[in-house]
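Worked Example 4.2. Read the sequence first, then its structure tokens.
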Amino acid sequence: MDAWVFLSGPMGSGKSTLGRALAQRLGARFVDLDERIEASTGRTVAAHFAEGGEAAFRARERDLARSLLSEPPAVVALGGGTVTDAPTRRALLEAGTLITLEAPLEVLRARIGDGAGRPLAGELEARLAARAGAYAECHARVATDGGQEAALDAILAAMARDAVVVPLGERSYRVAFEHRDGLAGALAPLRPTGVVVVTDDNVDGPWGRAMAEAVGARARVVLTPGEEHKTSAAVERIWDAALEAELDRGGVVVAIGGGVVGDLAGFAAATLLRGVRFVQVPTTTLAMVDSSVGGKTGFDRPQGKNLVGAFHQPAHVLVDVETLTTLPDVELRAGLAEVVKSAWLDSEDAVAALERDAEALLARDPPALRGAIKRSVALKARIVASDEREDAERRWLNLGHTVGHAIEAARGYRGVRHGEAVALGMVAAFRVAASLGDARAVEHGARAAALLARLGLPTDLDASAGPDVHRFVGADKKRRGDRVHFVVPGAPGEVRVVPLPLTHEFGLGGRAPVESSM
């Protein structure tokens, strides 16, 4: 066994029993965390609670759970409260597959009987309510009141799904890397009262129509592709189709397409009936690594990009890299700009992996694409979990975007793709770093530009940015008064946000005033 499986859940949910059975089926080691604590201290769990109280026991439990990760992988039955510690929970999510076992309250009570040896048995209902958010941050929730074999099958299916969790308490969701045929299964736990599919002309033929039929969609909205069509008129089409299909608050909007489709469908879902759920099925590189994860939705205005929108997290994201087979080469390359951005934010190892796999990515090698996309998604999930609404670390994800968005807006969203603009924006960002005194900015910028160029992306900023670009920098969403919060890169894994005056050159050459009315 080469991967960890952690079973969490309340007392009586079957962690130890199912854990042993799962380990036997997999031919793997089994660890019961409570038993490990008792063996290492010579005292029962009840004795720990009686002598030191719950806080002391949780500290011991937390330390032991984290120390397990230095051992070979195993199936682990966690304590009922292990995942209530957020750093421990996030470490387990990243280390392996975290499963929450659950059963109806009356079943749990029947299983624990008089609660002998269980210090918190009398508080079961209250503890379930208090831990709801922690238990929701998992790779799958598995019911254990339908028999052991059914539960084991569900755990094995979750292990095979290869998913990244975006941990947001009870609003947590999974980015599952699986075949598109899994969409119906992904919708099943949501129990939608109706489904409306949103796609565009490019995606409808290869994927959209068939997927809409497979999930029994009440309506299918086929939009005109292109950033220039990311408007309120497109949102109105989605609203009207959903209302005419009599979608209610139990319904789900499914976006199948690129970033434009996802942003429009997400905003429509956020505002329809004051908010319905939506699911993302990104079919472009750019959407897979960026717009489908994190909950940013919206549309453009003549004054700038994404200036009207809402935060509305998806209920699920399904990534099938096979959908990239119909993507034009230029679109594939454009999406890789966000992959480079994410790698630079992440670490030296992530950048080195892209440099190693550059040719394989352009050749659409499935393992290379899947690996690069998954690393980007995992980074974004970590950042969104710590800063959902872009008050701190999430600003880092805007690396290259201030100047990139300005280039798009200056061209009226025509003739330049978002990823191409972001690549140019990254070139500008390293120039800004140099202007702020970073002695290695030129070296780092040259390395980033070389990687972008190997991936077929533009890097000649001077030839691509016209005189109007300065003016549109002032329309950036990160503007505060007469300053813009600009993301300044350093070495891979190093980034800072600096408030720059609107009169700064922003790497565009020459100082130009920015109209404060934008």
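Now turn to a second chain, presented in exactly the same format:
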Amino acid sequence: MNSNVLRQKYLDFFKDRGHAIVPSASLLPENDPSTLFTGYGMQPMVHYLLGEKHPEGVRIADSQKCFRAMDIDDVGDNRHTTFFEMLGNWSLGDYFKAEQVPWMYEFLTSELGLDPKRLYVSVYRGNEKYGIPKDDEAVKLWQEEFKKDGIEAKAVDMAEKKGMQGGRIFYYNEKENWWSRVGVHENMPEGEPGGPDSEMFWDFGEHLQLHENSPWKDEPCHPACDCGRFLEIGNNVFMQFQKTAKGFEELKGKNIDFGGGLERLAVAVADNPDVFLCDVFTELKNKIEEIAGKKYGEKDDETRAFRVIMDHLRASVFLICDGANPSNKDQGYFTRRLIRRAVRFAYVLGVESNFTSEVAKIVIKDYKENYSELVDNQERIIDEMNKEEDKFRKTLVQGEKEFNKWTMSKISANKIIPGEVAFKLFTTYGFPIEMTEEMAQEKNMEIDMKSFEIEMKKHQDLSRTASAGKFKGGLADSSEEVTRLHTTAHLMLEAMRRVLGDHVQQKGSNITAERLRFDFSHGEKITDEQKAEIERIVNEVIEKDMPVTFTEMSVDEAKAQGATGVFESKYGEKVKVYQVGEGDDIFSKEICGGPHVTHTGEIGGKFRIAKEKSSSAGVRRVKAIIE
């Protein structure tokens, strides 16, 4: 069973159970301030999990493409990837645990044919401090399912200290079995939804933990440990709570949010713990073997290089396709980092000439049936890959010259290259530490690795802090102030199209309670006269107190009615079209997920463009306020 078959089995399974199948959202989230990327399947669903009506109904399923930048440094083992597909199904106030648990058991055991004797489950231990009970309800539901296959599913606690204890179901704390976008309870801001979850694990065999070379052979083994024996293949989130000023309150409608990694499910079906032997990587692996003249799996350092290259270039293709061209800021910074890291690791395989675009073509070919936008953007993807690789290879040459200068100076006297020097080669010139070590050995020198690792840790800690503290994009929250400015942004976009031309499209936004920041396609600076006219149009609409309503319709109907939207993007069968005005006095129609005010007069105050500048090639940025 290859991944395409598995993906379709999942979607068909839930379609048969009344779910609308919706397409994947972009990797660059529009209205989520918590991250630069869509890193979880539920991110595009947050507004609906909080109670907003989904145009496709209360039962939704999809395969969502995801990217997790925090996993870049972990890629190289047999299970970490930065890009992956997350199979998901949601109940928006409809069914709950009693339906979801049996369905997941049926899908895993009947549809995928996984041996139930090798499936294990975790549930939430509860927390008295937050008034959230132990999830005995989920335990009973799982026990009933396992019993159908003659398996007594014993539930045990404290596995992290006591090990398996003959258990099939395991209680864990919130670190393991509580889910929200920002982690455990104390990290959740007011308004954030979350809840206990129940995860499913596949057992690859206890030999992985008991192997004589395993660092975990003397540690207690259990599904959530790191020995490599178990792999999480799915997570049922029972999203029933919302953080409030009073603590945790139940949502009006209890929700189900399931997420299961496509690649992880595929390796469970194949019963091989190496995700890079999954069929989605087969053609990539073959192409790199052809380019490098090396075989995957023969040497540890080369195997790691294969994995980094396959993962990073696959992720880069999807990121560029969705608009994250390599750059020094925001999402583009990570695309650049991925491509450069792949090129660096190619040196381990002896590849010293351009190759990334050849690998990119394989990714596009492999995924074109499910993501046709890759074909539509192929020329741009290949061009960006080539430009970035060319640029980096020139940097490598410059870095080598700098290395030779340093080694001919006082460093040569004690034959030790300070970690600070190796770190500068890494950060400034992109030299992999392995490459610096090899060059040092040629001069009978060595690197002070201890000081290098200290510098690297400082760099990583600083990067994480900066990343965590930066407001990335979209809507800061769903407050009244942010909602007012969100509607204002839509009025401004329509005004821009009237003043500047129909070519104007939204390219990104960042909206807080204080101001809106808006990126749009336009090739030149806005004149003062144009700016004044845009402000006049928006303020006129605000003063007229026009009604803001939405209608659910098909994309074709939306186009026919003249609604604006980026129609190259994928939408579901139904969309929400927000209309400003009524009757013969309609100002705009636009596809959007909301939230919006009900009348433009609610915006209040006077709209003013505070600043306008270039954001990138062909894209301008404005900051605007309501005074």
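Notes for the reader: DSSP finds 21 helices and 20 strands in the chain. The two ends are 60 Å apart (CA to CA).
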